[in-house]
Write a structure and sequence with these properties.
The longest helix has about 60 residues. The chain has 15 helices and eleven strands. The protein is an alpha+beta fold. A hairpin with a 6-residue loop joins strand 9 and strand 10.
Length: about 500
């Protein structure tokens, strides 16, 4: 503030408010001090600003000088090159990450498209299997249960009637064949097959003798029946009643003939006599069964099995009863099944039907829930019109594929691949005229399937042995294979042959 302003304010204060002279002088001195203090403060602030600017300028100059003295020109260029390299690496990383993100999205889109295609194919295949192809409509499980209930009732009644006789003892029936395996090639009446095992009655023994005639196909046996000696060891040779030593006395006392007098021919169990005997008992005991109230029974003619047809107002089905003798507590039987027109009545061919049925049940437990191996077998057997090779050959091929191909690959979506594999295996086997039996000699079967030692060690027979011996039969079989492919193509295209 200017000094003249202060004097003017002082004069005005004196004029307006007269004060004592001492007081006036003190006031003037106080104002001067305040004015000087403000002036010094302004100079101090200005000086600090100039000092700060000077320090900043000196520091910038020192850093520039330090850098100039520390870095040589080649180092500057190297540093610049390093910066450029880092920028280039960053740019490339950024580009690749963008490409990875794009490729990841494309991969997801591609996977999504593949899933949609798989769903479309699965739907098309489901439509083909469930709606396009006309499958037999029978409920096989219901039919199997109904058949076993019928045969069990028959056997219960017959055992009571035969309890005091010397006829073969009827054991529990075993379901065998395609229906009990879960498939069928028939579109009309399903034939349910059961095997009734026979054991010798009291005082009799069964001895199985292998037929050595190489002219007959397969493994065949005869059942030699012997009367059993039941004399106590300490009384051997004494006059004790025994089936072997006193058959006439026992016959006269029991009023019952022994087995050698009834169902045997030359001491061998006769298939035809056994079938006729059982069919007679079935016809005589039918009215004692509860099924007789709702079903009509007809006995169909047959020499080596007891064939029944049951009908009512809504449906009908057939039951084929075969007879057999078990071999060494195994799943192999000698049975009464048909083996050609010239098969002697005392010949019992070896049967592997029980083992095969157990194999299919084992695979049903192991395979995926939507496995279509039975559909594959059923379709191939259904379109097989000619008999130049048997349905059992097709079944053998499918069993071999089930045994070698992982069960995970038998899902419904692989159905066409399974079908193609089966056809290719059939073609190769026909061209080579060689198809090995699945059960005989197979040492890799599930543990639950029991085989006799000789069957386990045997060389598997060739199911196409006849084709190798007869060129004309082989040509017919190859033509039957081509017909099978054509019929199969029509079924897949139109749903029927």
């Amino acid at each position: 503030m200017a000094p003249w302003v202060l004097w003017l304010l002082f004069l005005l204060s004196v004029v307006q408010y007269p004060q004592p002279i001492d007081y006036v002088l003190d006031e003037v001195m106080r104002l001067r001090k305040e004015l000087r203090a403000k002036f010094q403060e302004q100079e101090r602030i200005q000086l600090e600003r100039e000092v700060k600017q000077l320090v900043l300028m000196q520091s910038g100059t020192s850093w520039r000088d330090l850098l100039r003295s520390a870095l040589q020109p080649w180092q500057v260029w190297a540093f610049a090159g390093l910066l450029v390299l880092l920028l280039a690496v960053w740019f490339m990383w950024r580009k690749r990450s963008c490409e990875a993100e794009i490729s990841g999205e494309e991969k997801k889109e591609k996977e999504k498209e593949e899933e949609e295609e798989d769903e479309t194919r699965a739907y098309d295949l489901r439509w083909l299997l469930d709606e396009r192809i006309q499958w037999p409509v029978q409920d096989l499980q219901t039919g199997c249960n109904r058949t076993m209930a019928l045969i069990d009732n028959f056997l219960t009644v017959l055992r009571r009637a035969l309890s005091r006789t010397f006829y073969p003892v009827l054991q529990q029936a075993i379901g065998i064949g395609s229906a009990f395996e879960g498939w069928t090639a028939r579109e009309e009446e399903v034939v349910y097959q059961v095997l009734v095992a026979l054991t010798p009655p009291l005082g009799h023994l069964f001895h199985l003798e292998r037929d050595t005639d190489q002219q007959k196909p397969g493994r065949n046996f005869r059942v030699r029946v012997e009367l059993e000696c039941r004399c106590p060891t300490e009384y051997q040779g004494m006059n004790m009643l025994c089936f072997q030593h006193h058959p006439d006395v026992i016959r006269r006392m029991t009023q019952q003939p022994n087995l050698l007098d009834t169902l045997c021919t030359d001491s061998y169990l006769d298939v035809k006599k056994t079938v006729h005997w059982f069919c007679t008992l079935v016809g005589a005991s039918w009215q004692r069964l509860p099924q007789s109230r709702s079903w009509h029974l007809v006995l169909l003619p047959s020499k080596r099995s007891c064939n029944l047809r049951l009908t009512n107002s809504q449906e009908s089905f057939q039951v084929k009863v075969l007879f057999g003798v078990r071999r060494l507590a195994s799943d192999i039987f000698i049975s009464s099944r048909y083996r050609g027109p010239r098969t002697p009545s005392t010949m019992w061919p070896e049967s592997y039907a029980v083992a095969e049925t157990k194999f299919f049940r084992h695979m049903a437990r192991e395979a995926p829930q939507d496995s279509s191996h039975l559909k594959c077998l059923q379709l191939l057997a259904r379109v097989l019109a000619r008999k130049d090779f048997s349905i059992h050959s097709i079944k053998t091929i499918v069993m071999r594929l089930l045994h070698t191909v992982p069960v995970s690959q038998w899902q419904r979506r692989h159905f066409l691949l399974q079908l193609s594999d089966a056809l290719e295996q059939l073609r190769v086997s026909l061209e080579e005229k060689h198809l090995e039996h699945f059960i005989v000699g197979n040492q890799k079967l599930p543990e639950e399937i029991r085989l006799p030692p000789d069957v386990l060690r045997a060389r598997p027979p060739n199911l196409f042995h006849g084709l190798a011996q007869d060129p004309n039969a082989h040509s017919q079989a190859m033509q039957a294979y081509l017909d099978l492919r054509q019929r199969l193509a029509r079924v897949l295209a139109y749903g029927h042959c």
